[in-house]
Amino acid sequence: AMIHKYSGDLITPLKRLQHSGHIEIITTSATHAVLPTLSHPEALRAQIAAAAEDYLDRFNTKASGFWLPECAYDPRVLSYLKLAGFKYIFTESHSLGASEAAAKNGVYASYRAPNGINVFARDADSSKEVWSAKFGYPGHPAYREFYRDLGYDADYDYIRPYLGQDGARRPLGFKYHRITGGGDLSAKKYYDPDEARAVAESHAADFLERRMRQADEIHSSRGIRPVITGCYDAELFGHWWFEGPAFLESMIRKIRQERLPIQLVTPGEYLNSCPEPATLNPGISSWGENGYFDPWINDSNDRIYPAVLSVTDMMIETANHFANQDLTGLTLRALNQAAREVLLAQSSDWPFLMYIGSHSRYASERVDEHSSNAARLLTEVLEKRVDEKALSELEKKNSLFQRMDFRLFASVSRF
Questions:
Q1: DSSP for 84-149?
Q2: What does the pLDDT look like over 230-242, one tens digit per residue?
């Protein structure tokens, strides 16, 4: 319904909501690369700058906030974030370190890095009710079961016309069962949307009660009005947790209708009204397993990095060679497409899929594909023999960042 209402253009209503001050839309790195795993400063710059320019192109304004993919931080990112015009980031709680003097208010205040970038640290307590396997709301028995789907449940002859040309059973999005309890998918009871909605409302009330109690305790112990930063994957709401949007709606409405002593603010609103933040150098961190970068660099996926590093080297060297030339035609197109392919090879999705053992072969092949595409294009440019037909096919297949400028990969010292 949303797609039909806006003719597939969801950017426009989001722009309106941002312009009216209701929401604040931020961006992330170009292809969700875990930035600390990029050893080249030019690659860091390209991932951040490409995202900033794409945001400006879509929203006609600069993004104020930047989501560090996987909350993965190391100090090198600060200068490139500042260069791209960002004002704030989010980090995992342990990025604040053990220095009570520097972060005396813990995660309940914002801080400012030495170069002026503002830092919000994630509050683990406000995430526990949602994410915890033991306490998390999404696991309630009344909520819709994600893994039962009509594409698998229905009689094959009945469902065959809706399965696609190959006739293979696949998820269709029609899910008639609730979580029920236990891991036996065959024993799931039918879903009751009214009951699920009521549970979502009760969970929203519980969540707000916990936040108010938390705020009171912080005020009593620290003497501050805390800012509580809750960070969640957007796909949780409506995808994994079908009732997630109802939970959010109920929570927002309760704050206003019941005039609760708690309010929702955007990071920009908070920074415009908060006391002068203390200066802090965040520590290396992420919200990945074990708190650092283990999921993205380990025995299951480390084989991909030599190819990614090699083609990134090649991209930087070639960008430096052509950076100050007035290029047109095939050479420019090939260099820009090579930059897209390098960015795609750097995506965090590939090593993570390999780590969890889900579609590992596909992920590995994607890294090889993008790395080899970029290497081939760069070689063709240097040897002045660009294959226009093959280039056109790649431009259609991997068409992100239409205004890509390969010079983003040129060494900063050249500008």
A1: TT--EEEE-GGGGTT-TTTTTTGGGS-EE-TTS-EEEE--HHHHHHHH-TTT-GGG-TTSBPTT--
A2: 999 989 999 999 9
